[in-house]
Design brief:
The complex is a heterodimer of chains A (256) and B (267). Chain A is an all-alpha fold and 256 residues long. In chain A, 75% of the residues lie in helices and 0% in strands. Classes of the chains: A mainly alpha (256), B mainly alpha (267).
């Protein structure tokens, strides 16, 4: 058996080359000026640039609101889907994750068009609800997964011991489903901060999110500033990952 | 009890209707000839005909974008499935710190938002002076697909009886034969779901492709739609194309699901 542990080696080399090294390069480019000399100017530029800071704050705000909205709408849906007395069909679950697999840009364009047809002005409101459309399945699926695998005997025991349905939910089901909520947050929050095409479509380019300014800098060959902005995002990712622990693994295993 | 069932059902349907509204919208407007998305000019299958006969504006650009999308998804998910399966066997047999390190590294591409994966790989290719195009896009897709294959294969390894591989060797199989005839069949369900997940993620990817495709004019469906929408007018034939792709994915998922529930019924 011992020798088969060597089978991880090719993937280890692959990960170092295509994951670790590229992330280090973000740090390297962020701390260099155009001619390759060490500088903190790119980072300083971000903190002194009102536009970038404003976009950053707005992105975090939209991401928090979108995440909360997804939990608010997604948790009840996941709960109903996982409750065998309310939903017996596996096909319903498939229907909920299926939109994940329709081209997100196309779906977003259609959403924006629907808003326009309904006479709703494209702006922050449409951005929020449009994003919620896009990311809702990513919130529902991990919560459903955890609820579905949950040991029902805890809830039954609590019930037998006289807890009301409300108490059972608050004290048993909700705490036990938190890992699912956390991985849902993970899959909604950071992607919302970093999205660029989606926010452009949903607001008709009126509102820029952080992803858009990263993309603009990289595409206009301002690699060092683009890398600095990416580095700031990496720091946020690091912080949220540490805060949330690491639940994505179990939630997304066997996702098909 | 009855009331809560009705409310639950109604809630699920309401969310489903909201989720599917944009998709239904595309499907409905694929049956009219109008250029812009929300414009109805009478029922027509002209867009479908144009799509299949290739008689439309930019037809070669759209069809080559479709071809690129499928080819990149196929190659990337095949390579990711092989790399990920071998890696999963390796990781399963690792212990302690090494195993934790591999699991940690494997998680990074899944935690990273697309734009970080895209920008970091863009910088890698710039740094190494690799000109960007097909190869770099495929490498980038393998990077974000493989972790999901690993995650889908690992549980199958823990369900596997570790002795049967040794038994095959004792009975005279070469390690290659034991791999092909014993390990692969046992891991196949995990490999298939990893492959499908990889394929669909690759199909849907926009940001990573956008940053790693270089300037040679390589387009996938996503980058084509993005460029099209920024120009102002979406190619009308995209509507029937998206409708067809959606129906294919729906059929595939339903078949997989029915097969799974059948096999779990048997057990």
């Amino acid at each position: 058996m011992g020798k088969r542990s060597n089978w991880a080696l090719p993937y280890f080399i692959f990960l170092v080359l295509f994951v670790v090294l590229p992330l280090l390069l973000i740090v390297v480019y962020a701390l260099q000026d155009g001619s390759g000399h060490f500088t903190l100017a790119n980072i300083a530029k971000f903190f002194s640039d009102g536009d970038s800071l404003g976009t950053f704050a707005l992105s975090i705000e939209v991401a928090i609101e979108n995440t909360l909205l997804c939990i608010l709408i997604g948790y009840p849906a996941a709960y109903i889907l996982a409750d065998k007395s309310l939903n017996r069909s596996a096909v319903t679950v498939v229907l909920f994750i299926l939109p994940m697999w329709v081209n997100a840009l196309m779906r977003t364009l259609a959403t924006a068009e629907l808003f326009t047809m309904a006479g709703i002005q494209l702006g922050k409101g449409t951005l929020l609800f449009g994003m919620c459309y896009d990311y809702l399945p990513f919130m529902i699926y991990p919560i459903y997964n955890v609820l579905d695998k949950m040991d029902k005997s805890y809830a039954e025991a609590a019930q037998d011991l006289g807890a009301t349905p409300g108490e059972v939910f608050r004290k048993i089901t909700l705490p036990l489903s938190m890992p699912g909520v956390m991985s849902g947050v993970m899959m909604v929050f950071m992607p919302t901060v970093s999205t660029f095409a989606i926010s452009e479509f949903l607001t008709n380019n009126k509102i820029k999110l952080f992803g858009t300014i990263i993309q603009e800098n990289i595409n206009n060959s301002m690699w060092n500033y683009g890398a600095a902005l990416s580095l700031i995002m990496l720091v946020i990712i690091g912080i949220t990952t540490v805060l949330q622990g690491d639940n994505k693994q179990e939630a997304m295993g066997g996702a098909v | 009890m009855k009331a809560s069932r009705v409310i639950s059902k109604a809630y699920l349907w309401l969310v489903l209707i909201i989720l599917y509204a944009p998709i239904a919208f595309i499907a409905v407007f694929s049956f009219t000839e109008a250029k812009s998305l929300g414009n109805w000019t009478g029922f027509s299958t002209a867009l479908y005909r144009n799509l299949f006969t290739g008689s439309m504006q930019n037809s070669s650009a759209l069809l080559s974008a479709l071809e690129n999308t499928l080819l990149i998804a196929l190659i990337a998910s095949l390579v990711a499935t092989m790399l990920g399966t071998v890696a999963a066997i390796g990781i399963f047999n690792l212990k302690g710190k090494k195993k934790a390190t591999m699991n940690f590294l494997n998680n990074i591409p899944m935690i990273n938002p697309d734009i970080i994966t895209g920008v970091s790989l863009f910088l890698l290719f710039v740094f190494l002076h690799i000109s960007q195009g097909y190869t770099t896009v495929i490498l980038a897709h393998i990077t974000f697909c493989t972790p999901y294959v690993v995650l889908n294969v690992l549980p199958k390894l823990s369900q596997l009886n570790p002795n049967i591989y040794e038994a095959a060797l004792d009975l005279g199989a070469t390690p290659m034969q034991a791999l092909r005839k014993v390990l692969v069949p046992a891991l196949r369900p995990g490999m298939i779901s990893g492959f499908i997940l990889s394929f669909t993620m690759s199909l849907d990817d926009f940001a990573v492709t956008f940053f790693t495709r270089g300037t040679i004019g390589l387009d996938t469906l996503s980058t084509y739609i993005y460029a099209d929408a920024r120009k102002g007018g979406l190619t009308p034939e995209l509507k029937p194309l998206m409708t067809i792709i959606f129906l294919i994915i729906l059929a595939v998922l339903l078949i997989i699901n029915m097969r799974q529930s059948k096999s779990s019924d048997k057990q």
